[in-house]
Write a structure and sequence with these properties.
The protein is mostly helical. It is about 80% helix and about 5% strand. It has one domain (about 5-215). It is built from six helices and two strands, in the order βααααααβ. It has a two-stranded antiparallel ribbon with strand order 1-2. α2 runs antiparallel to α3. The radius of gyration is 23 Å and the shape is elongated.
C-alpha cells in the first residue's frame, strides 16, 4: 500500500494580485470622488455667487470667481486621480481576474472598453467644447463611460455570486441608483472597497500554509 499527497486547493497568486490591484484602484477612485464632489460643490456655489454679485456689483465678485477657479482645479485633480486609479490598478486588476476566472471576462471587457475610450474621449471633448465637434466627442465619450459603468455593475453581481459577500450586491444596487442619484456613487465605491478588502483577507488566509491531504493508493 502506498500513499499519495494531494496539494490543498488554494486560490492562485493571480487572483490575489487581481484583488489587491482592484482594491488599490477602488481607493484611488474613491479619493477622486471626494475631490470631484468638493470641486463640483464649490463650482456650483461659486457660479451662483458670481451671478448674484454680478447683479448687485461689489468687490466680492473676485472672491466668487476665485471659488470657481478653485472648484475647477479640484475637479481636474480628481479626474487625474481617477484616471490613475482606473488605468494603473483597477482595469488591470479586473483583467487579471478575468484571466483566472473566465466568468468575469464580460465585465472586464466592458470596463476596459468603456473607461479607456470613455475617459479619453470625454477629456478630448471637454477640451473642444467650444467647437461643435467637441460636443459630439463628449457625447460619444459619455456613452462609452456608460458601457464601463454597466461593466462595474456586472462585476459587483458576479463577485457576489462567486464570493458570497452581500456588500458586493449592495454596491451593485447603489451603482444602479447612482444613475439617478449621482451622490450615491461614493457610497457604492466605499462598499466595493470594503468588500474587496474582506475577500482579499480571506484569499490570503486560504493561501497560507495548510496540510496536504493524504490518500491511500
Amino acid at each position: 500500500m502506498s500513499y499519495a499527497t494531494i496539494p490543498p486547493s488554494t486560490p492562485s497568486t493571480n487572483v490575489v494580485n487581481a484583488f489587491q490591484r482592484m482594491r488599490k484602484g477602488a481607493l484611488m477612485i474613491l479619493i477622486a470622488w471626494i475631490f470631484l464632489g468638493i470641486g463640483l460643490t464649490i463650482m456650483i456655489v461659486g457660479t451662483f455667487a458670481a451671478v448674484m454679485r454680478g447683479f448687485i456689483g461689489g468687490g466680492a465678485l473676485v472672491g466668487a470667481l476665485s471659488g470657481l477657479v478653485l472648484g475647477t482645479v479640484l475637479i481636474v485633480v480628481g479626474a487625474i486621480i481617477a484616471l490613475i486609479g482606473f488605468y494603473s490598478d483597477f482595469i488591470p486588476g479586473t483583467s487579471s481576474l478575468a484571466q483566472a476566472s473566465p466568468e468575469f471576462s464580460t465585465a472586464s471587457s466592458l470596463i476596459k472598453i468603456g473607461y479607456v475610450w470613455g475617459l479619453i474621449l470625454s477629456l478630448v471633448g471637454a477640451i473642444l467644447t467650444l467647437l461643435i465637434v467637441g460636443i459630439f466627442i463628449l457625447i460619444i465619450g459619455l456613452v462609452f463611460l456608460l458601457i464601463g459603468f454597466v461593466g462595474i455593475i456586472i462585476l459587483c453581481f458576479k463577485l457576489n455570486d462567486e464570493y458570497r459577500n452581500v456588500l458586493y450586491l449592495i454596491a451593485g444596487i447603489f451603482f444602479i441608483l447612482n444613475i439617478f442619484l449621482g451622490f450615491l456613487g461614493i457610497v457604492a465605491w466605499i462598499l466595493l472597497y470594503v468588500a474587496l478588502g474582506d475577500t482579499l483577507r480571506k484569499l490570503q488566509t486560504t493561501t497560507g500554509p495548510t496540510q496536504p491531504s493524504i490518500i491511500q493508493v
